[in-house]
Amino acid sequence: MNKINTHVNATSIDQAVAALGANAAVVAGGTDLYGSLKGMIYPDPPSTLVNIKTIPGLSYITEEGGMLKLGALTKLTDIAESSVVAAKWPALAAAARHVGTLQLRNQGTIGGNICQSVRCWYYRAEHVGFNCLRKGGPLCYMVPGNSERGSAIFGAAGCFAAFPSDTAIPLLALGATVVTNSRSIAMADFYEGLDNVLDDNEIVTELQVPEPASGSKQVYMRWAQRKALDFPEVAVAVVTGSGGTSIVLGGISPVPVKSTGAEDAVSGGISESSATAAGNAAVQGATPLPASDIHMGNKWKVQITKTLVKRALLAVA
């Protein structure tokens, strides 16, 4: 049973960091954590919650010296509606607009969105209904079970839960940096294995996104069962310019995927044929989960990924 022994309303980063540890959790908007605690999904739940909403000065959108700076507590609604973001980073604005519902965007933060846990229904089963691989158990239940939604076609360390964040996908494609209380981490290095690389005593404080080169184009697309509310089953961000094309995929692996194969396919330019080739390259090596007598598996995700990559590329051609 979850038992929160300590609740800290931090008023500074230093105070928040001092309260953290192996059995503590950071809470900002709470749209991910509170539901997990209510469902009692953790075998060893946190005994301390460190509330960082009470730290002043962590919600802002500024442009300085060719760099977009977003405070970690900046609400997703503010990013989605920001004229500053829309002017030069429209893929990020589009991703923020797609998150959940208006109520969730009003509550959820950019820091929380890139750090959220997977939405796998086995991992999220109430009262630790499934002691899955992520919880120290013997297997990923997606593999023999119901993998129709929220599953990956590229596993990592045996896990086939799909990465759920919208905003992380364009942030990686745009070459963003995550700033914490102790270091700066390129988005390309922020995810590893099954999760992000934050230490137990580390808190995200800011996101920095470089200004795209003049003449570059960008787009964010996603496919979900429902246009509103649902997490993306497949997400694609494309940023193209004089330096080449960056293609990042979400929803198909436990962490975001930068598809170098797809990027190589359009290195000579984007056309109908090269975009098709990029879509095929994006799913090269995929291992979709099989169907059973009662579940359809997730082979369909391969075709959705190929099609979405092609559409995104043609949108910036």
> Structural class of the helices, strands and pairings?
alpha+beta
For the biggest β-sheet, the strand order reads: 4-5-12-8-9
> Count the helices. How many?
12
Number of strands: 16
Radius of gyration: 19 Å
Shape: globular
Distance between the termini: 54 Å
Q: How helical, in percent, are the residues?
A: 25-40%
- Beta-strand proportion: 15-25%
- The unreliable regions are none
The H-and-E topology, N to C, reads as EHEHEEEHHHHHEEHEEHEEEEEEEHHH
Main sheet record: 5 strands, antiparallel
What value does the average pLDDT take? 95
Summarize the structure in words.
There is one protein chain. α11 (272-282) packs antiparallel against α12 (300-316). The strands form five sheets. A five-stranded antiparallel β-sheet has the order 4-5-12-8-9. It is α+β, with helices and mostly antiparallel strands and 317 residues long. The model has no long low-confidence stretch (mean pLDDT 95). The protein contains twelve helices and 16 strands. The chain has helices at 13-19, 33-38, 76-81, 83-88, 90-98, 102-107, 110-115, 168-173, 187-190, 260-265, 272-282, 300-316, and strands spanning 6-9, 24-27, 48-51, 61-64, 67-71, 151-156, 159-161, 177-180, 184-186, 191-192, 195-196, 204-210, 217-223, 234-241, 244-250, 257-258. It starts with 5 loop residues before the first strand and ends with a helix.
